[in-house]
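Reopening this ticket.

The earlier resolution said the output was attached, but the attachment link was broken on my side. Pasting everything inline this time so it's all in one place.
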Amino acid sequence: MSPPIAILQHVPHEGPGAIATLAAKRGMATTVTRLDLDDPLPSPDAIAGLVVLGGPMGADDAEEHPWIVPERVLVAATLAHGVPTLGVCLGAQVLARSQGAKLMRGPEPEMGMGTVDIAAAARTDPLLGPESPALECFHWHGDTFDLPAGAVLLAGNAAYPHQAFRIGRGWGLQFHVEVDGGLAGDWAPHLPDGVSVDVPALEPVGRRVIGAWLDRVEAAGR
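Inline output:
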């Protein structure tokens, strides 16, 4: 049996959504590690891919969340092993920090449905290139980061220029495209009044972007 895709989850309401569903449709096994429940981290040489999900904490909040540093170490080791990696929201920040990039507060929180502009360098990227010139997504963040050394900027907007990047076999997405009906329901009690998720708009985007990442996982395992 092929190794699973390991999914790192930080809070109960931010699960894998469409990532797990789309992987299951391909017959790809997934495991969920709940860092908030002190689950042990997986080994980089025992997984086919790594997904790091979102959460309200910051990628530098090690005092309050002591698992943050071991998580960053795991992400760095996973990239060094050439394992395809996907960081979403907090996961993108963890990916950036694992490569030595600086984390900082953004100009103001970005929340709700929106778009990001696909960078020129992303036109040949397998995940975001086909989405040119702009991608519809859901924003839910207040932190941002410098690009890691050697990373390729894939997307941004005026408020947050660093919205997506690729480094090696790792992709960081500051925004969300993994939302399905179940995940949107889990999010609803935690969203501010007046903010909602347009699931019908996001599901096709998620199928394309996440599907392209799953293609990378399958290709790496051959």
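Reporter confirms the inline version is readable. Residues 5-220 form a domain with the Rossmann fold fold (CATH 3.40.50.880). Residues 199-220 form the longest helix (22 residues).
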